[in-house]
Design brief:
By secondary structure, this protein is an all-alpha fold. It contains four helices and no strands. It starts with a helix and ends with a helix.
Length: 111
């Protein structure tokens, strides 16, 4: 199968899987059934756990060598934390930290 002919099936399967994952919670927990306490608990704790895992993953190679990459990464994390403490908006925090990191690795600490 050539590449253009494979595009449509891939798009259709992706769309079907996305639709299924979006509809599944409504099928499992209809309007009449209350959401189980376990699911509510996971909804409260997983966002922070995922963010902590992402920070650890992003900084896993930084600690031994505080070169330009390490300092840029630490400054990016600091900007993200500062923006989140001030603005309490995840989108602004992540975008600001990413922008700070990208500017630092391009102009201040080019690798």
């Amino acid at each position: 199968m050539n590449a253009p002919a494979a595009i449509l099936p891939v798009i259709l399967v992706t769309a079907a899987c996305t639709l299924f994952t979006r509809v599944l919670p409504f099928l499992l927990f209809g309007r009449e059934r209350p959401v189980p306490e376990t699911v509510r608990y996971l909804g409260r704790v997983l966002p922070a756990a995922i963010m902590a895992a992402l920070v650890v993953y992003c900084l896993k190679d930084v600690w031994p060598a505080f070169d330009g990459h390490g300092l840029s990464a630490l400054c990016g994390v600091a900007v993200t934390a500062l923006l989140h403490a001030v603005r309490r908006n995840s989108l602004i925090s992540i975008a600001g930290g990413t922008a700070a990191y990208m500017l630092l690795i391009r102009f201040v600490f080019p690798v």
